[in-house]
Structures are given as C-alpha cells and as structure tokens.
Amino acid sequence: MSLERLWAGWRSEYVAGAAAGDGQACLFCRLGASDEPDEETYVLWRGRRCAAALNAFPYTSGHLMVFPLRHVGEMEDLKRAEATELWDALTDAVRALKAAYGPDGLNLGVNLGRAAGAGIPGHFHAHALPRWNGDTNFMTAAAEVRVLPESLPSSWKKLRAGWPSPPAPSAAP
Ligand SMILES: [Zn+2]
Q1: Of 23, 34, 62, 106, whose CA is between 20 and 30 Å from 94?
Q2: pTM score above 0.70
Q3: Rounded to the nearest whole angstrom, what is the distance from the C-alpha of residue 160 to the centroid of ligand 1?
Q4: 122 within 8 A of 71, measured Cβ to Cβ
C-alpha cells in the first residue's frame, strides 16, 4: 500500500463541530473546558494537561483524537510535560482501541498545518484509529461515502470502557 493511500484518511480532515464554533474558542479548547456530560461531547478521557475525544466524523469507527488542553498549534511548542502526557494518552488510546475493537492494525497520525490536511491547525491534535484488512480498498471504492458499522454513542461506550486510565481526573491536584 502506498503511503499516499495510507494517509488519505485524514488528508481532508473533518472534526466535530469545527465549523460551528465561529466566534468561540476552538473545538479542542471547548472540549477541554466543557462541563457538559462526556457522553454528549464524546470526550473519552481527561488528564491534567491533555484529553482525548472521538472524532464526530470518523474515518473508521473508533477514530479518536488526543490533544493538549492548552491552545498550542506547533508540536515544538508543546511543553515537555504536555508532550509526555500526550504520548502516554496516545499509548492508552492504542490500548483502548485494541480492547474495544481488536483491529488488524492501527493508524496514528498528525497533520501539521492546513496544507498537510489539518482541519484545526491552531490546536495540535493526534489521530488514532483502528484498521481492518481490506478497509482501505473498501474506502477507496466507496469514495467519499462513509459507511460505519456503529453509532458514536456506541463507540464512546466501548472506548471509555477500554480506556486504561480512570476518566476525569481533573479534580486531582
Ligand atoms: Zn484550542
């Protein structure tokens, strides 16, 4: 499989509510600060410096994103503690995706800049999604039509259950 094909999933990136936030903070800032129930915003996990949430327009079921709570766009501007927690969260995301879906493989990826396909280039975020043998061929054949076997609430429940770290530790010091 060519790299071009492998990464085509987020070449044009869709992110939950990205267009709906005119005049407000960016989507990731809103998700990070939201006091709405996680099952409504699809936040999967909250840490001290980072959080994870489902992509509301997933490439495959279970497509999630991990991001720092601070509004920072450039990877090299992440503080050491943010980068460390982000990587730990991404590792937990891999565990959760494996536990929830038992996929044949996973993609982890970052788009830096709009030219690279970032939908929200001002706020760094990493994608993680499960893959199955043959799904790329299927997606190519289906063009832009996305046929997903399960609903977002169902994905959220599975991944939340499979997440290794306890959710919402924000009350901790
Ligand atoms: Zn932001």
Answers
A1: 34
A2: yes
A3: 23
A4: yes
